[in-house]
Amino acid sequence: MDVDFIRGVVPPVITPVDAQDRVDEQALRNVVEHVIRGGVHGVFVLGTTGEFYGLDLEQKRRAIRITLNQVKGRVPVYAGASAITTRECAELAQLAEKEGAQAVTVLTPMFISPSEEELYQHFATIASSTRLPVLLYNNPDRTGINMSAGLIERLADSPNIVGVKDSSGDFTLMSEYIRRTRGKNFRVMAGRDTLILATLVYGGYGCVAATANVAPALVVEIYEKFQAGDLQGALEAQYRLAPLRVAFTLGTFPVVIKDALNLVGVFAGDPIKPVGHCTEANMAKLKGILENMGLIGRE
User: Fold this and answer.
1) Does 298 map to a domain?
2) What are the pLDDT digits (tens) for 136-182?
3) How far apart are CA 78 and CA 129, in angstroms?
4) Is residue 239 assigned to a domain?
5) Residue 2 within a domain
6) First to last CA, the chain
7) Which of 60, 165, 225, 258 is catalytic?
8) 61 within domain boundaries
């Protein structure tokens, strides 16, 4: 299976919604266009940053269709197929395939605590339900489940499980993902935006970076300077990006990305309730970070 397209910077785009929590079509198109103008190498719709958990099936379908229509083949589109049950994940994967996505990304289940064998069967069943490449998604902070290096190594032998996005922030674990899948048709992508360069240096292929919603060109700079052999330039870009990722603690996930987009002039609207906007004090802090990064002008 061709996995050459799984590389570079892939933003998990936010999902703008209206007052009834329905996808705001024009706003989503604008966000997609914003990141493509920034030079990204793919677009990921319905990730955790995209608040997939707050959208019903029809709104998920709309989000995928709108994203694919706006992208128009310029970059690959990854669609989230995450849920608690294996059945629903498989149905979402099949939906993504039917709509024309190039790959699906599947998060570990939420709320429940499956054993390692149950996780293996979960992902293997989902992968067998679709012909699309499957990118695993490890995010223990959000789900309470941390995928072991042994499990990743085992799953990497499945024909269409072709990679993993790791948001654990545990670089030793991520480095083991990379080491133990060497020689396999498998790619590791950073999911923690402060570790993009470190992942590339160790042998990863890129990142699925929420900050690339707001500062796509800067995140792309890390990747492209590394590819060009400019390690110092890539490091400086990584340093410049770090304050925005650290600022995620200023609000309830994932509102900081939406608030930051609103501040830089790309309409992102409101988060899906019960999440609210950053407090006035934290909004001022976020604005200061964006000013220091040169993403908005100083008043």
Assistant:
1) no
2) 999 999 999 999 999 999 999 999 999 999 999 999 999 999 999 99
3) 16
4) no
5) no
6) 52
7) 165
8) yes
Query: For the chain, what is the domain count?
Result: 1
Residue 137 designated active-site: yes
Q: Which residues contact 182 (CB under 8 A, 6 or more apart)?
A: 203
Give the domain CATH number at 197. 3.20.20.70
pLDDT digits (tens, 9 = 90+) for 89-139: 999 999 999 999 999 999 999 999 999 999 999 999 999 999 999 999 999
Q: Are 235 and 243 in contact (CB under 8 A)?
A: no
Q: Which of 60, 78, 120, 137 is catalytic?
A: 137
Domain assignment of residue 26, given as a range: 8-229
- Known active-site residue 239: no
Whether the CA torsion 167, 173, 175, 179 is positive or negative: it is negative
